[in-house]
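Run Thioesterase through structure prediction, thanks.
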Amino acid sequence: MSNAIPHRFPIGIDPIDIDFMGHVNNASYLKWVQAAVLDHWRALAPAEAVAQHLWVALKHEITYRKPTFLDDDVIATVLLEKVQGARAFYETIIKRGEDVLAEVKSSWCCIDASSLRPARLTREVIQHFFVGDEDEAVGRRLR
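Sure, done. The structure for Thioesterase is below.
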């Protein structure tokens, strides 16, 4: 069981997201995941860390479960699964009420805002994303 702090991010569906079949185009989910993960970072990381680091997406693996429509009330829930070096691994679940619309596994690279080179996060920063025994949790998440 994860002790990651879940971050809920409301999704705004725009008419431009709707494809020729009358539901949200698959590409829109990528836009939503990026916005949700970055909002998660800004909401939980210390302001100094936010100012010093940028994030670049490396990989998204999306499993589409149900179609999403223009008037749906959609929430993305983001969890930081683990950090390895400069990489962070996330799970994002996109839901309409209790219905899972999509599940996304993604990996991201942390970049130093000044040098634009990969950067490792400190234990102190990573601790902001987990609850419980912080040393134990961070130790597990750094593997």
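The longest strand covers residues 99-112.
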